[in-house]
Every structure is written in structure tokens, then in C-alpha cells.
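User: Okay, second chain of the day. Same drill as before: sequence in, C-alpha cells out.
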Amino acid sequence: MTPDSVDAELRERILRRFAGTQPQHELADWRVLGIDAERSRRLVEHFPRNPVPAAVLVPLVDRPEGLSVLLTQRASQLARHAAQIAFPGGRLEPDDPDIASAALREAQEEIGLDPGRVRVFGYLPDHVVISGFRVTPVLGIVAPPFSLELNPAEVAGVFEVPVNHVLDSANHQARMRRVGNEELLLYDIPWQGQNIWGATAGMLLTFVHMLREERA
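Assistant: Same drill. C-alpha cells below.
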């Protein structure tokens, strides 16, 4: 099998796995830091009781050499999650018609990504974060070429990570973290001097776990 055919097979497998998925807002479906649903349910009590609804775009850039994940580095002056690696996104606004529209709006505001270059194809379960948000990850294929214009008040930079790097468990760096009364083995995803961790790594690992389920 040639590299081109491998990349095409992975792209089709991702689209097939998440086709028809919808936002999952029920408490029983919430995820914490990318761990499985059962353990997430035990840990939700340690997070804010009424988290603010938010959405992020998980942009998968459809490049000839294979899919990559577009990530941002947040501005250092922000009050929350300063300088951390994140997906473009933010809280839902009253005039957002739906979750996907909110994620696309935030991506346009933060990094200047034209919504017309993005095809939304699915969703991950909601992830609750300690800062007080319930985040719906919106999966989208981004068609090059596209231009970006960063909002310096929100974003210090952007970079891409190959999806194959994210999928390879050899690139998942384990660390222990205590949440409530439970010790958790969590994973970061280092990439070329950047370290993807916390909620962003959790969403990516949920993506990885769900994709592996499709193959089983």
C-alpha cells in the first residue's frame, strides 16, 4: 500500500467514524481530560456544577501529505489558559444559531479562518474543564489553500501536527495527576518543542479512542 493510499484510507476512516455524530450535552456523556466515560462520571463532581457552554473547532487540514491538526498558542496576557496550546473557540453567544456556527465564528475571530473553507463532519462528546466551561468539540475538514489573520489579543501563533503523530501512542507522554481523591494517568502529546496537554490533549485522545473503536 502506497503512502498516498494509506493517507486516503485514514481520511475516509475518520469521516466514516464521525459521520452523523451529534453534540452530546447530557451529564452522563461528559468527558474529563480525555479519560473514558465511566471514570469521567466519577470525576465530574470535582468540576464546576453549572459550566458555561462553549465550542471549539478541531480543524483537520486536508493536505496532500496527509491530514494535520491545526492548533493555536493562546496569547500570554489572557486571564485564562494564557500561552497554552488550544483549539480556536470560546463561549456560545445568544445569536449563534448552533454549536457548529459558534465554533466557526470563534475560529474566524481568533485566527481569521474563513468558515467557507471548513466542512463540519462530526462532534466529540462534551468536555468539562476546571475553568468552568463545558466544551463541545466540532470536527471540521479544512481545505487548503487558506489564509489566516491572527487576533493578537487572543492568539500568539498557530501550528499544525500530523494526525498520524497524534494517533501513535508512542507519542503520548504519561504523567500522574490527582483529581479529587483519584490519581489519574494522563497523557501529553509533545510536538517539535510544543507540549499539548490538559483539555486540548484530552479532546485529541478522545478522538483517538473513538477512532480506534471504529477499527475494532
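The first strand starts at residue 52 and ends at 63.

User: Thanks, on to the next one.
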